[in-house]
Design brief:
The complex is a heterodimer of chains A (253) and B (322). Chain A has 253 residues and is an alpha/beta fold. Chain A has a domain of 169 residues: Rossmann fold (3-Layer(aba) Sandwich), CATH 3.40.50. Chain A has 9 helices and 11 strands. In chain A, helix 5 runs parallel beside helix 6. The longest helix of chain A has 17 residues. The radius of gyration of chain A is 18 Å and the shape is globular. Helices cover 77% and strands 1% of the residues of chain B. Chain B contains 15 helices and 2 strands. In chain B, helix 2 runs parallel beside helix 8, helix 2 packs across helix 13 and helix 4 crosses helix 5. The relative contact order of chain B is 0.18. Chain B has one domain. Classes of the chains: A alpha/beta (253), B mainly alpha (322). At the A-B interface, helix 2, helix 3 and helix 5 of A face helix 8, helix 9 and helix 10 of B.
């Protein structure tokens, strides 16, 4: 099966420091791949390269067989690759409705309509409502984003990425900044939403090994900018040495 | 703001302004001409500032494009149709805004502000120094123009301004406001607001950040030119002071005074400023001092401007009614 998203010898250096060094990974349709590793392992650099935020120093990123290295976020969104950020990114003054509509305007290529009304677009508003319902925000449509609870902001952040109708979505620590009690609820919603929205592949960067164990179908462990292990989740958790290398002995499973 | 509230506010405003020339001395009617000019220009300015989050300190250059454009087209070329002049200066200002905007919108915050300021002053120097083209510090004459093909020869200048031209400008303001209302509530306007709130996130939901900032800049220039042409028509002159940076600052002042987070804020700001300036100037030579004090009070105490204050006072009443 051809990979949805793959990297070839992907490297990124910041001056002398090699954040990523010859990383080769591939994500196939239907997978939920977790990228794990200690701080400074290169997880966020990998996501930033995968989503076109940075140019790789060497190597390439292929999406559906096409090079997307350094393509930039707008083009990537059009190609079908969306992401959410580790730190919650919302539009503070926009309502939930408007935030989701912003992504739908892009996805439906209505952005250059200067004189038609967003509110009068019934088809779009139905879709906004559908997406909001999936993310349990259906009753909050008219609420301004900055007044939402922290967990809701996170859901809204991801909801707007899902609204683009992406094939692949990268979630950079989607539960960071969310209280421990809310974490599982948020993850459950995200995974269910992914299925409902027809997302083919999810890349999840996550620290919380309990969440990784619950949701990942495959695990890619990074250390020092290199791939330490790339295994199905079940096999990974049978390797105590690997777990120790990634999360430290203290938290061994 | 809900559409119903906006319609109610707009209807009241239109009725009041339609009756005004019948109720007040001609002096006050002619005083409303710069108000109309500024209100139209500020509708555009606020598309850039309030809706896209870009604060320009050089926006007066587009008012200058309108005033000087009118002087050239009506005065030099002898085309006396004000509609043709408006059309031409709008196109001219928007074309001028493309390269300037292209260079400016890649920067945000203070850098955008400084670059627009620099272009404004460049434009000022050009108008000031190229005497044979622009008349230098004495400016260029803006002749009387025909409105809708009518010459109004029997009217003197004051009568023209207080009568036909007043209603002409009121109509222009209504059209400009309707146009802007559609723009800010369109998918395009939604993307502009997304850019204002969080440009990084906006890119990741497929918003063309640079292109849209440029588009807002160019559109705002068109509105500015209409405002400038009206100002030029009123005083019969386009002089370089119109593009001086203090005039750009005045546009910022009016918008903040009225409230940049409200659709009607710029219009209210233009009105309040025009009246304030007129009254204070006749009271004291220290009127700038008082205006400065008012600006400080607004920014510190009422950051949502007059529109925000009115909205806060009205909201409880409105809610109890519905």
């Amino acid at each position: 099966m051809t990979a949805l998203l793959e990297t070839q010898n992907l490297s990124k250096a910041f001056g002398e420091f090699r954040a990523l060094d010859g990383v080769r990974i591939a994500i196939a349709p239907g997978e939920l791949v977790c990228v794990i590793g200690p701080n400074g392992a290169g997880k966020t650099t990998l996501v930033n390269l995968l989503t076109g935020l940075m140019q790789p120093t060497a190597g390439d990123v292929l999406f559906n067989g096409k090079s997307i290295a350094g393509l930039g976020p707008v083009r990537l969104a059009e190609e079908g690759l969306a992401r959410s950020f580790q730190l919650i990114q919302i539009f503070p003054q926009l309502t939930v409705q408007e935030t989701i509509a912003t992504a739908l305007v892009s996805a439906q290529k209505k952005r250059w309509r200067l004189f038609s009304s967003v509110n009068a677009d019934r088809e779009m508003n139905l879709r906004v409502r559908e997406i909001a319902e999936i993310f349990r925000l259906g009753h909050r449509l008219d609420i301004t984003a900055h007044t939402l609870a922290q967990g809701e902001k996170k859901l809204l952040d991801v909801a707007s990425a899902f609204a683009l109708g992406p094939q692949v979505i990268l979630l950079d620590e989607p539960t960071s900044g969310v209280s421990t009690a809310e974490k599982r609820a948020v993850m459950d919603i995200l995974i269910a939403a992914g299925r409902q929205a027809g997302v083919k592949g999810i890349v999840l960067v996550e620290h919380d090994m309990d969440l990784v164990a619950t949701y990942a179908s495959r695990i890619i462990a990074l250390t020092g900018g290199r791939v330490l292990a790339d295994l199905p989740a079940a096999e990974f958790f049978n390797e105590p040495n690997l777990i120790a290398a990634v999360v430290g002995k203290r938290r061994g499973h | 703001m809900k559409a119903r509230q906006a319609i109610a506010a707009a209807v009241i405003g239109i009725v009041v302004f339609a009756l005004l020339p019948l109720l007040v001395p001609a002096y006050y009617a002619t005083l409303m001409i710069p108000f109309f000019g500024y209100a139209i220009a500020l509708l555009g300015f606020n598309l850039l500032f309030g809706y896209t989050g870009l604060l320009s300190f050089g926006h007066a250059m587009f008012l200058a494009a309108g005033a000087y454009g009118a002087a050239v087209i009506a005065g030099v070329f002898g085309i006396r149709s004000f509609e043709a002049v408006l059309l031409a200066v709008v196109v001219f200002a928007m074309v001028l805004a493309v390269p300037i905007g292209f260079l400016c919108v890649r920067n945000i915050g203070i850098f955008f502000g400084m670059l627009t300021l620099a272009f404004g002053m460049l434009f000022y120097s050009f108008l000031f120094k190229f005497y044979h083209l622009t008349g230098g510090d004495s400016g260029m004459r803006v002749p009387r123009m025909n409105l809708l093909g009518l010459e109004f020869a029997q009217y003197n200048k004051i009568e023209l301004l207080a009568g036909p031209f007043y209603y002409y400008c009121l109509a222009l303001l209504i059209v400009a406001a309707l146009l802007m209302w559609r723009i800010v509530h369109s998918p395009f306007g939604l993307h502009l607001r997304a850019i204002r709130d969080n440009a990084r996130k906006a890119e990741y939901v497929g918003v063309h950040v640079h292109r849209f900032r440029l588009a807002a800049f160019v559109l705002s220039a068109g509105f500015g030119a209409v405002g400038g042409a009206i100002l030029g028509f009123r005083i019969g002159l386009a002089d370089p002071e119109i593009v001086y940076w203090t005039h750009s600052g005045q546009l910022v002042f009016m918008t903040v005074l009225g409230g940049f987070s409200n659709f009607f804020g710029p219009i209210i700001g233009a009105f309040a400023f025009t009246l304030l300036q007129d009254q204070l100037q006749s009271l004291t030579q220290y009127w700038r001092f008082i205006l400065g004090g008012i600006l400080a009070v607004i920014v510190i105490g009422f950051p949502t401007g007059i529109a925000g204050m009115v909205d806060a006072l009205w909201r409880p009443l409105w809610r109890s009614k519905t």
